[in-house]
Amino acid sequence: MPGRGLTSSRARRAPTMDDVAREAGVSRALVSLVMREQPNVSEDRRTRVRAAAERLGYRPNAMARSLASRRTKTVGVILDDLANPFFAEIAGGVEGLASELGYQLLLGAGGRQARRERTALATLLEYRVDGVILVSPRMRSRDIAAAAAEVPVVMVGRHVRGVQADFVLIDEAHGTELVLEHLVALGHEAIAHVDGGKGAGGPQRRGAYLRGMRARRLAGRARVIPGDFTEEAGANAARELLAEPELPTAVFAANDMVAAGLLGGLDRAGVQVPDELSVVGYDNISIAHLVNVSLTTVDQPRTEMGRLALELLLDRIDNRRPNLVRMLEPTLVVRSTTAAPRAAGALSLPAA
Amino acid sequence: MPGRGLTSSRARRAPTMDDVAREAGVSRALVSLVMREQPNVSEDRRTRVRAAAERLGYRPNAMARSLASRRTKTVGVILDDLANPFFAEIAGGVEGLASELGYQLLLGAGGRQARRERTALATLLEYRVDGVILVSPRMRSRDIAAAAAEVPVVMVGRHVRGVQADFVLIDEAHGTELVLEHLVALGHEAIAHVDGGKGAGGPQRRGAYLRGMRARRLAGRARVIPGDFTEEAGANAARELLAEPELPTAVFAANDMVAAGLLGGLDRAGVQVPDELSVVGYDNISIAHLVNVSLTTVDQPRTEMGRLALELLLDRIDNRRPNLVRMLEPTLVVRSTTAAPRAAGALSLPAA
DNA sequence: GGTTTTGGTTAGAGCGCTCTAAGTCGCGAG
DNA sequence: CTCGCGACTTAGAGCGCTCTAACCAAAACC
Questions:
Q1: What are the residues facing A133 on neighbouring strands?
Q2: Nearest C-alpha of chain B: how many angstroms from A14?
Q3: Which nucleotide is closest, CA of B59 to its C1'?
Q4: How far apart are CA A19 and CA A201, in angstroms?
Q5: For helices B17-24 and B43-56, what crossing angle results, to 10°?
Q6: What is the DSSP string of A142-153?
Q7: Rounded to whole angstroms, how far apart are CA atoms A248 and A274?
Q8: Can you say whether the dihedral through the CA atoms of B176, B177, B181, B187 is positive or negative?
Q9: CA nearest A73: which of A81, A83, A62?
Q10: Residue B120 forms contact with A (CB below 8 Å)
């Protein structure tokens, strides 16, 4: 019965380097050299060792290797929320480069809670990862600073002053401006914002929104509905808006998840988008463009963000150098959730 | 300059258990007992050790611990494709339970390529994870069998016979039947299928589709368009369908990503869904319900699949027992991408 | 009062690897 | 014939922890 055979073979202790050495008739050190592809090993020995390892089904023990060499070739990545494709796509970028370079990834997800994020980070540090990438972390700055004191850190999407780390940032103010410009050019004035609460980018986008509205003398029409970057927050916002006597003509959602929740809520209520209400998202997650009524949104170069973060991290691991901040520019992707407001003809035609 | 201080402190060797023992004036063994929350340590010593550890900023070294204890408290998870929210959501389920139980996750993504998947798996095994969860793996059965001989394995979404592993499966035939039933009840006969190629579930869904069509005496109307579970495949399928003289009245997509790509392509061509063509997906990924024209699809209980997989794995790690297969039932979620075919009145009214 | 028992503590031998320092060997040069 | 040298190989000391066995009081038993 082959099944049994497999099971019992599992019980047997895994072969070690010593076993391979004995099998090949050489010393353990030589096996180590061969495994690490070091030079100055004769071809003869090399093939003999390889064959022995093959025969025994030898698999190096990464724990022992890391313990002895004090290098793990592993970097940790902490994501705010696995359920949000935005983060999965950034992780995808990191993963792609990591696998090219032979680095391992240890992923941790915070589930949008600072506490879970902290424990995930603690675990990564116990594994002595060579470095950590924090994507839109929710932790307090002091926790981040403490981590940065132990290990090289690169942060994506959030800036924290006074921390020894590199940063990959998106120009949030610019992204927000693109949105307002677009909506105002279409003739919108009553533009509401469903914000992202305290999550990374949330305060920045909200601030830029308020500033932009003020600069356009639309401060009186500004309206911020609290959210938290989730689809649920979008659905709630829809309910809140619909409960009022009058809808705004456009809504700028803090991210695409919120926009999606919003669109769902509006649809259920029979509100036509974009005829009755325009909606703009932020992130350009992969599904944003897929739907019949596809979402106008701000694109963030997610894969590039991930790759860049890892590049910075590895460079930081090897070279002590001053902190680096890389600012990437977002772009606006106009699709079909935005249009001129219904009764805007008179007011906005001159502008157009 | 606080920055400098942090940087230089990083260079200092991390404190070890011996350092803590010295600081607390006890033996290393006692520190170990305290760290592992073992009983039979006096309250006095316990607090003294804790304080010393705190003072030094001691952080246990997971490598050393695992090496000595030969248990990693870590399980590996290999996902077919991080870009597909379906997998992210399964990972979310695993992650949730893992963090409840104090288990660590080592995530690896295969990027829909058997080769990358194999190397990711090899790495996990070098880390001596306590077990591995393979989600819709693309590897050859023999590679999987080899892994299962080394470590407990649970597979999700794919069955491989003769392998020592547990399985979490969805009744694909049933899911597919739900789709055909729904479409035929609406009056559809020309139902095409964009399949998932060789990816997990692909052949099963295709097979069930063909069988179902035959059973309904619609074999003549069956039409399979090759795909691969990606959005791009959906877009290609749209192009292919549009190039023909006549559209089918309904399309069953192998998963939601394909459906999404399909919808995008149809929209660009001005085809009205569901008026001119009905579309059904599979998976019910989180964004499937979010859009104005929301996707009719087959729901898979993703979070539960993830949790269940981890439960099985941990049980398998602790207890030697025969293989288990857990079959979960999918359900149909009817939304707004399906409707009666246009000219179906005459034919289908009797049925309805 | 001596001997178990028991709760608390510790020394020390590994876990499987890396890496340094110290060989060994053959060979051309002195 | 000895020495030096380069190429190759190896012994052995850790890396930071766990875990077994042993130890030592103080309490419990007869």
A1: A77, A154
A2: 8
A3: D16
A4: 54
A5: 120
A6: HHHHHHHHHS-E
A7: 12
A8: positive
A9: A62
A10: yes
Residues of chain B in contact with residue A294, where contact means CB-CB under 8 angstroms, are: 264, 267
Nearest nucleotide, C1' to the C-alpha of A66?
Answer: C17
Are the beta carbons of A150 and B64 separated by less than 8 Å? Answer: no
Angle between helices A231-242 and A256-268 (to 10 degrees): 40
Closest Cα to residue A128, out of A154, A150, A102, A148? A150
Q: Which nucleotides of D are covered by protein (CB under 7 A)?
A: 7-12, 14-21
Check A260 against B92: CB less than 8 A apart: no
Kindly report the pTM of this predicted structure. 0.84
Q: Residue A27 in 3-state DSSP?
A: coil
CA atoms of B157 and B97, how far apart (whole Å): 19
Q: Among residues 198-237 of chain A, which lie with CB inside 8 Å of chain B?
A: 231
Collect all residues of chain B within an 8 Å Cβ-Cβ radius of residue A9. 149
Query: Helices A28-35 and A43-56: crossing angle, nearest 10°?
Result: 90
Please choose, from the candidates A98, A121, A95, A99, the residue with its C-alpha nearest in 3D space to the C-alpha of residue A108. Answer: A121
- Asked if A254 and A201 touch (Cβ cutoff 8 Å), the reply is yes
| DSSP string computed for A48-117 | HHHHHHHHHT----HHHHHHHHS---EEEEEES-TTSHHHHHHHHHHHHHHHHHT-EEEEEE-TT-HHHH
Query: In chain B, which among 303-342 make CB contacts under 8 A with chain A?
Result: 320, 323
| Minimum CA–CA partner of A146 in chain B | B6
Measure the CA–CA gap between A228 and A196, rounded to whole angstroms: 4
Instruction: Count how many Cα atoms sit within 13 Å of the Cα of residue B91 in the half-sphere of its side chain.
Output: 32
Q: At what angle do helices A114-126 and B85-101 cross, to 10 degrees?
A: 80
Q: Spell out the per-residue pLDDT of chain B, length 352, in tens.
A: 333 333 444 556 899 999 999 999 999 999 999 999 988 899 999 999 999 999 999 999 999 999 999 989 999 999 988 878 889 889 889 988 998 888 888 888 887 889 989 989 998 999 999 999 999 999 999 999 999 999 999 999 999 999 999 999 999 999 999 999 999 999 999 999 999 999 999 999 999 999 999 999 999 999 999 999 998 999 999 999 999 999 999 999 999 889 988 988 998 899 988 889 999 999 988 766 665 446 677 888 888 899 999 999 989 988 889 999 999 989 888 877 788 887 644 444 433 3
Residue B289 CA to residue B307 CA, distance in Å, equals: 23
CA of A30 to C1' of C28 (A): 28
A19 CA to C25 C1' in angstroms comes to 26
In chain A, alpha helices (H): 2-11, 17-24, 28-35, 43-56, 62-69, 85-101, 114-126, 141-150, 172-185, 202-215, 231-242, 256-268, 302-318, 345-348
A110 phi, psi to nearest 5 deg: -95, -10
Buried residues in A319-335 as b, exposed as e (16+ CB within 10 A): eeeeeeebeeebebbeb
Q: Which of A82, A128, A151 sits opposite B95 (nearest CB)?
A: A82
Nucleotide nearest to A21 (CA to C1'): D10
Q: Given the structure tokens 């739907």, which residue do they identify?
A: A291
Can you read off the two tokens belonging to residue B312? 């099985």
